[in-house]
Structures are given as structure tokens and as C-alpha cells.
Amino acid sequence: MVASGHYDLGISVDRFVAEATEDEGFRLLPLSVPILIDSTRLPGEIHRDPADRLLAATAREHSLTLVTRDKELLAYARRGHIQALKI
């Protein structure tokens, strides 16, 4: 981990994304207009971080489970608004 609390990938972000998506290990989803709008209208209490709001709205739109260690997103999931697994 780097000092900011994020993971050090050890490679450039573009290389990481290219390698992660080449064998369908990860799938990139577009930020659609409905997701952008829904991120401003999420139900219940969720903090104001726009990136986390986009993650929550995307998870809801695609019926996905977030894998995270973010305490706020995990609390939001415990309140039943999204599915999340703690790492």
C-alpha cells in the first residue's frame, strides 16, 4: 500500500486495465446517463464522495456486488441499499 491508503499496482494504470480486461477477469462498464443521475438520488444515507456514489449507482443498475474495504460503502450495504463484500 502507498501512503494515501491506495494499493500500489506495481505497473501503470493503463497496463493494469489492459491486462485485467484481456481475459475477462474484469469488465469495464460505461457511466451511462441513468447511472450518473441515479448517483445523485441514491436512497438512504450515503456520504457525499462522488466516486463512491457512482460505484453504488453502478452496482445497483447492474445488480452487482461491490468488493471493497470502504467503511461507508459497507455500511450502506448493511442498510440494504447495495450488495457488498468486505475484503
Summarize this entry quickly.
It contains four helices and two strands; from the N terminus they run H-H-H-E-H-E.
Q: What characterizes the major β-sheet?
A: 2 strands, parallel
Residue share in β-strands: 5-15%
Terminal Cα span: 14 Å
Shape: globular
How are helices and strands ordered from N to C? Answer: HHHEHE
> Unreliable stretches, pLDDT < 50, 5 or more residues?
none
- Tell how many strands the DSSP assignment holds: 2
Q: Biggest sheet, strands in spatial order?
A: 1-2
**Helix/strand class:** mainly alpha
Proportion of helical residues: 40-55%
Cα-atom radius of gyration: 14 Å
3D structure, described in words:
The protein has 87 residues and is mainly alpha-helical. It has a domain at 29-86. It has helices at residues 13-22, 33-38, 50-62, 71-78; strands at residues 65-68, 83-86. The protein has a two-stranded parallel sheet. It is globular and about 35 Å long. The model has no long low-confidence stretch (mean pLDDT 90).
